[in-house]
Each structure stands twice: as C-alpha cells, then as structure tokens.
Amino acid sequence: MLVTVLALVAASLAAEAQPAGPIRTIGIIGHTRPSSFEEGLRELGWVEGKNVRFEQRISTDNQRLAHFAAELSRIPVDVIFAGNAASTRAAMEATRAIPIITVSADPVSTGFVASLARPGANVTGLAIMHTELSGKRLEILTQALPTARRIALLVNPANPSTPVVRRETEARALAIGVKLILFEASAPERVAKVMAAVAKERPDALVVQGDPLFFVTRQQLLEAAARHRLPAMWELRGFVEAGGLMSYGADPNELYRRAATYADRILRGTKPGDLPVEQATKFELVINLKTARALGITIPSPVLLRADHVVE
Q1: Residue 90: what are its φ and ψ, rounded to 5°?
Q2: Alpha-carbon span 205 to 195, nearest angstrom
Q3: pLDDT tens-digit map of 69-98
Q4: Burial level of 231, CB count in 10 A (0-12/13-18/19+)?
Q5: Which of 56, 105, 116, 212 could form a disulfide with 28 if both were Cys (CB 3.0 to 4.6 A apart)?
Q6: Dist CA 259 CA 252 (whole Å)
Q7: Is the distance from CB of 214 to CB of 153 less than 8 angstroms?
C-alpha cells in the first residue's frame, strides 16, 4: 500500500514539473549535435516528441550556417541554440526577434550582447571566455616546455572570436618573451597545407585555437603534430585523450547542459535580455604523459601537479 502511495506521489510531482501546453520548437545550429543540451532539457521536463521538438542544422561551413539560420527563422522556432560563435553570428543576422542562446568565447567582445549582466536584445547564454584562456594556454605550454621560444598559433580567420584570441595571445607572448608565429586555416582542405607550413617553420611548439573547424579535423591535426614531433596545446580534453600533448579549457558538455536551463526559462516566458550571461568558471588542465615520452619531453613537476587529469 505504501509503495502504491509513494508511486502516486512521485507521478503527481513529475506531472507538476512537466511543462504544459503545445509542443515547442527549438532550433539547434552549430558544428555538432549537443547531446548534453538535450539531456539537460529532459531533466527539466522537456521531452522530445511529447512537449518539444528539435530542428537541427549542423555544419562547419559559415555560408551554410547563414542559410540554416535563415531557414530556422522562417519555420519559425521558439528559441535557437547556437553552439559556437559562428553559428551565433549567423543566427543574429537571421533574426532579432527569436531568442538565441549562445555558448561562445566572449559574447561581449564579439558584439553578441551588450554586457554579461544585461545582455539586452535577443541573445543570452554562456561565455567560455577562451579568448582570455588563449593567453593562459600559451603560458602553461611554455611552463611545460621551458626552452620553447618560438610558438606557432593556428587560428581560423572566419571565427568571430579570432581577433580577440590573437590579441590576447600576442599580449601574453610579449609578456613572457616568446615569439609567436601566426598560421591561418578557414576550410578543411586547407588544414594539411597549413600544418605542412607550420612544420617547415620548425617552431618549438603549437597552440591551436578552439574552433569547430579544428574540432572536425582533429584527427588530421593530431596526426600531423605527431608526425612532425610538434608539442601542441589544445582547448578540449578530447584532443589529449586522442593523443595530443596537453589541453586547458572548460568542459563543453557541462556548458551545453547549463544552456538547457536558459532554454527552459525562455520557453516558460523569460525574455533573453533579462537573463545574465553566465561565465564558465571551471577549467581543467589535461596532460598526456605517453605523448610527452614519445616526443622526448619531460614535463616539469610543478606543471604536472597542477594537472586535473593525466593520461598515462
């Protein structure tokens, strides 16, 4: 009897938490399907096919993103989730009326929001702040490689965050006394040629910008770095688990899950301009010791002690 009563209470509470009304539509635009975003929504009571449906448009090509964003605005959707800076820019150019949730580097510097506390307009979300982290990555890399004095920086010029990334990294390079050598790639077919150019320059190490293009071509980049025996710093832990030397950055899955709370509040009636942008606060340093040994590198103990995770 008690079990039955408890089951009825649990069912009642679940029903109360369940958003009511017609099926709402969320547009998703970016370079990958953010499963953790959808998982976060399910935890908040938004179940695909029951009270929400997704219109997904996935691409790393900026022109296609612009086309997809315009398509989503015509459907129209109730809210757009933009998983990076390029897709946020495309969504903003397509609509100033539909709420947009961004997960991007620095939404203030890129002009997506007026300020973190008061976004204004139709965009809010989360700031990874990897423009600031780009300089920190360079610093950690040089601490791991004390003799490195010539560092290559690989960026995508088509990324709206790139000017800030360059400025922050160049400033840190000047401060710590290393020479920064800039390389650019804006399409998958350019990656192999650019990595060959990097190898020809023979830098001591490489820092790679966090960018969707470099995520989808990660295997190619990792193989080139290994082939040319080039120590590299990446943004995401997955690069290190796949053989990269080290990474420093936020967990995108956690950010996507947090973005679900923004979608939930907007779908329940809150205006995006009234939702402050949340900054990522947790960053992890990951080091692959197997890769370090293959490159003949000994990571200094102080750097190893700072690591949140070490791949043996």
Answers
A1: -65, -40
A2: 12
A3: 999 999 999 999 999 989 999 999 999 999
A4: buried
A5: 56
A6: 10
A7: no
pLDDT tens digits, residue range 152-192?
999 999 988 888 889 999 999 999 999 999 999 999 999 99
- Distance CA(311)–CA(242), nearest Å, equals 10
Nearest 10 degrees: CA dihedral of 203, 207, 209, 213? 60
The tokens describing 13, both together, are 């509470």
* Phi, psi dihedral angles at 202 (to 5 degrees): 55, 55
Distance from C-alpha of 159 to C-alpha of 157, rounded to nearest angstrom:
5
Distance CA(214)–CA(107), nearest Å, equals: 20
The residue to which tokens 């490689």 are assigned:
145
Mean pLDDT of the residues in the chain: 91
Residue 306: exposed, middle, or buried by beta-carbon count in 10 A (0-12, 13-18, 19+)? middle
Q: Give dist(CA 254, CA 175) in Å, integer.
A: 32
Tokens encoding 104? 């991007």
Question: Tokens 């079990």 — which residue?
Answer: 3
